[in-house]
Structure formats: C-alpha cells, structure tokens
Amino acid sequence: MEKTEKTGYEWSLEANIRLLNLSEYDTYEGEYFIGKLTASEFYERLSKCKVKPNSQPRKTDNFLEYRMYGLVNYQLCGTIHAGIQFGHAVVDYGRSVRGVKELETIYNKWADIDKTVIILNGGTTNNNPERLGTLNKHLNNLNDNGIVVQSFHEPDLNNALTAICFLVDERVWNRELYLDFKPETLPWSNKKPSEKALSHLEEKNKKNYAHWEEKIGNKRNVFLRDFLPKFRLA
Which domain holds residue 112? Predict the structure, then answer.
C-alpha cells in the first residue's frame, strides 16, 4: 500500500500548526512548500522546529498563489478587445517591475506557474476631472491604497484609459482559507454590560483585528478584499 505524501505546508495545514522559523525545517525555504514526504517523515522534521499549535500555517510571499486582475472599459466588455487591452497592460506591468527584485520575482512566479487572469468590468473612461470616468476613479483609488498597478492608454482611442492590471495574492480571494474578521461579542444578557466589560471587549477586538490584518497580508489586502467583490466579470 502506497504511503500518502504531502508537502510540509499541507501537513501543517491539516494539523493546524504554524512553524515559527522555516530555516529549522530546511535551509531551503521552498522545501517546505514543494518537497513531498510522508506523515512520519514530516513529524520527524517537525521535532526539530518551534511550532505554534492551533494556528494556521502561513506561506511566504514567493509561495503564495497569485492572480492577475484587470479592470477594462465597459464598452470593450464581451469582446476580444477587452482581452487585448488587458494584455497590453500586463506586458507593461512586466516591464515596469524589471529590476525591482521582490515585484519582479512575484510577477515571474505568476507568469511561469500561476498564470490565472481575472478581467472585470471597470466602467466608463474619461480623464476630464469634472466628469472623471469610473475606470479612472478606480485607478486613483488603487494608487491611493498602495496597490502596484499598471494602466494602459490606447493610442487609437485618443489615449483613453482602457485597462489597468494588478497582482492579487490568495489571501484576498481565497476566503475559505483566509476567513473574514469577525469581532467578538458579549454573551446575551438582559442587563447592559458594564463600561469596563465593553472597554475590555473593544481592546480585545482591536488586538484581534490587528493580528488578522497582519495574517492576511496588510492594509492593502484588507482594501482589496473589500474592493474586488463590487465588480462583475468583463
């Protein structure tokens, strides 16, 4: 009978344990996410590691799954031109991150392995400040929230903004694994909780929220988790 083999990350996910220092598992970080081994082999390695029980294991940036999201002008939606304009933006994105080590590594990982693209209806395009298009507003919103984004302006359409693209990691779109934050509440009672109890609960929720925010990647990912569900496919 064949023994089941999984990656160290998969075994950790199954056991709900988080390794605190991956270098204790192996000198090569990728071994934990790529190398497959049996359960007994995994736990033998684990005996040399510091772990946190009842805690979801985490992926490092280089081993998260990424998707390239795009917003395109609504007039292009449902046509081949939506994909073409989005493709222009993706090519320019790849060029723009050359030499920026972390961004280039992640882009190449997406291009070589993940490959998935999601193209969404971004609405109208208009660069007139008094009648700014929704696609233009979305671009400003993404920039204001620190998202690395690439825009494309079509020369044959009077340089109108037609597409924007940006990489999104799994902590944003995989809500089954990365759950939404749920603040704790006080047990039901027919008496109003004391100010002390309310204050304690507020502080606890603040602390838990900060921990959740760090777990799913930072404020940028919090923004994207709220931003992306508003859109429909192009």
Answer: 64-172+226-230
